[in-house]
Design goal:
The complex is a heterodimer.
Chain A lengths: L3 E10 L2 E11 L4 E5 L6 H8 L4 E8 L2 E2 L5 H6 L2 E4 L11 H8 L6 H14 L1 H5 L10 H13 L5 E5 L7 H18 L2 E6 L2 H7 L2 E6 L2 E7 H6 L1 H8 L2
Parallel strand pairs in A: 3-8, 3-9, 6-7, 7-8
Antiparallel strand pairs in A: 1-2, 1-4, 4-5, 9-10
Chain B lengths: L1 H31 L6 H17 L4 H24 L7 H23 L23 H23 L1 H11 L1 H6 L4 H27 L6 H15 L4 H22 L5 H15 L14
Classes of the chains: A alpha/beta, B mainly alpha.
């Protein structure tokens, strides 16, 4: 059974329809990427999964219908969203940001262990643990956003353009850690990216979205070989 | 000199009450960016509840804590029932609801309890503490109660997960939902806390100004001035501003402009701060790039 399944998903902002009947699914423990140009509906897809936009159609998580539920209830099922723009709590400290990620958890001791684990992944965050999160650099805020999501101990992580605005070296570090987390903790990931080459290297499966519809799907290796994708998204 | 010290200290006592109410205003402001005009009437209504409880024979502190609890529940219920439906409406609609609440609470109290002025007991002895010449026991006690309330609030917001979640929800509702915080309930809790703080302010001020349905009108004005002076988005600023306004009001009233014009001090402060330094002493200056 698929971990996440969307069937005939429609979404709109007011009168503007953005998703036109998308269907896709992903298996537990895998990394899947959604590729597409600006305005294709990638961010909206992630927001739809979290109940942050009005949707029609079916979304199932672990077999359970989650469409139409409140965002905070969906999060409590184990879906962590690293939003577009990072969603930093700018006036709170780095550590408070991380603790908020574990807000719904009751196992306080394990939360402390996880906090140290995040500082292990991202030592920069440890250096800045008492600093106001809004004063962190873009890269540090992205690390914080990923760590905050991991603090939930999610089954599924939705990542919205994790590479956005980051220096290539930092992107490489971040993606390396995402892979480690996926392998060691079996956290499934759905990654939206404009940087198609990076995303295809990270992911097992890929979907190509154009104007709110799935145009192509397959394993990352197959998608990489597709001529149209190569020309339009990989640029060679 | 003695008279001056006396006025300053008495100012600190009423200032503490303004500080509490200012803090209640700031709490709602931080979450909603609106000033709750009904905050004073909520406090007044809660004080009447305390009066009923005491008159029914309940010991003072029992009535005190029960009132704080009831005010909390009242705040939560008002948010859920009255404010929630207009949450996403325009600013004007919400302000109209606030004013409606003010008028309704005021008239309902008048209708239940009549407009006759009542005395409200103080829990502190009539003899001044340690025979000091400067402050009555009630004034010292009111300052003490205010400080305890501030300390408890600080500890709550700083050290508990729920306090952290409330701060997060006020700051960034969308991210808060994404970590599983029930933002709507945080807002309701904020209303409850604000009403509870207000009820303490009401019970502390009632022995000084006596109990009547309009008793909080002037006090809300001073509290509002205090919150603005300190910076309406900064809780510490609001507390500082509350104390400052209390002292200014008393000293100016006694020596400079006379008692009749005291309330004008608050209005002058409000207009002064809004024209000269809208962010107050400690408030954040909001810069928008265009």
């Amino acid at each position: 059974m698929a971990l996440l399944e969307a069937a005939n998903l429609h979404a709109s902002y007011g009168q503007t329809r953005v998703l036109h009947g998308m269907s896709f699914s992903m298996e537990e423990g895998t990394i899947t990427t959604l590729l597409g140009a600006n305005g294709a509906g990638k961010t909206t897809t992630l927001r739809a999964l979290c109940g942050m936009v009005r949707t029609q159609g079916e979304i199932r998580f672990g077999g359970q219908r989650i469409d139409g539920r409140a965002t905070e209830d969906i999060v409590r099922l184990g879906i962590a969203h690293v939003p577009d723009g990072r969603g930093t709590f700018a006036n709170l400290s780095t550590e408070e940001n991380l603790l908020l990620g574990a807000y719904t958890r009751k196992d306080r001791d394990a939360v402390q262990t996880d906090l140290e684990r995040m500082y292990g992944y991202f030592p920069r965050l440890k250096e800045r643990r008492a600093q106001q999160a809004g004063t962190l650099s873009g890269g540090e805020q992205q690390m914080l956003a990923v760590s905050r999501a991991l603090m939930l101990r999610p089954k599924l992580m939705l990542l919205d353009e994790p590479s956005f605005g980051l220096a290539p070296l930092i992107v490489k570090e971040l993606f390396g850690i995402l892979r480690t987390v996926n392998e060691n903790e079996r956290v499934s990931m759905l990654v939206v990216e404009q940087n198609a080459a990076m995303a295809l290297d990270l992911a097992d499966h890929a979907y190509l979205i154009e104007t709110g519809r799935i145009m192509l799907s397959g394993t990352s290796d197959d998608i990489k070989k597709d001529d149209a994708v190569r020309r339009s998204y990989l640029g060679y | 000199m003695d008279a001056f010290i006396h006025q300053v200290l008495a100012g600190l006592a009423t200032g503490g009450i303004y500080a509490s109410l200012a803090l209640a205003l700031v709490m709602i402001y931080q979450a909603t960016h609106l000033v709750n005009f009904a905050q004073g009437e909520l406090a007044m209504f809660a004080t009447y509840i305390a009066w009923s409880l005491i008159n029914a024979g309940m010991p003072y502190w029992g009535a005190f804590f029960l009132t704080v609890g009831l005010a909390f529940v009242l705040g939560v219920v008002i948010e859920r029932v009255v404010i929630r439906p207009v949450e996403n409406s325009s600013v004007l609609s919400v302000v109209v609801v606030f004013i409606a609440l003010l008028v309704i609470l005021n008239s309902v109290t008048g209708w239940i309890y009549t407009y006759t002025i009542k005395t409200f007991p103080s829990p502190f002895p009539e003899q001044p503490f340690f025979g000091n010449r400067y402050m009555s026991s009630h004034e010292i006690g009111a300052i003490g109660v205010t400080l305890v309330v501030l300390l408890l609030l600080y500890a709550f917001f700083r050290f508990t997960p729920l306090g952290l979640a409330m701060r997060a929800a006020a700051q960034n509702p969308e991210s808060s939902r994404l970590v599983g915080i029930r933002v709507g309930w945080m807002l309701a809790l904020g209303w409850g806390l604000a009403a509870a703080i207000g009820s303490v302010a009401g019970m502390m001020v009632a022995p000084i100004v006596f109990l009547d349905p309009n008793m909080m009108g002037g006090i809300l004005l001073y509290a509002f001035a205090g919150a603005l002076v300190g910076g309406i988005d900064n809780p510490w600023g609001a507390v500082f501003g509350g104390f400052l306004v209390g002292v200014l009001e008393n000293v100016l009233g006694a020596f400079v402009i006379g008692n009749e014009l005291k309330l004008a001090v608050a209005l002058v402060l409000i207009i002064g701060v809004l024209t000269v330094k809208p962010s107050g002493f400690f408030g954040k200056v909001h810069v928008t790039r265009v």
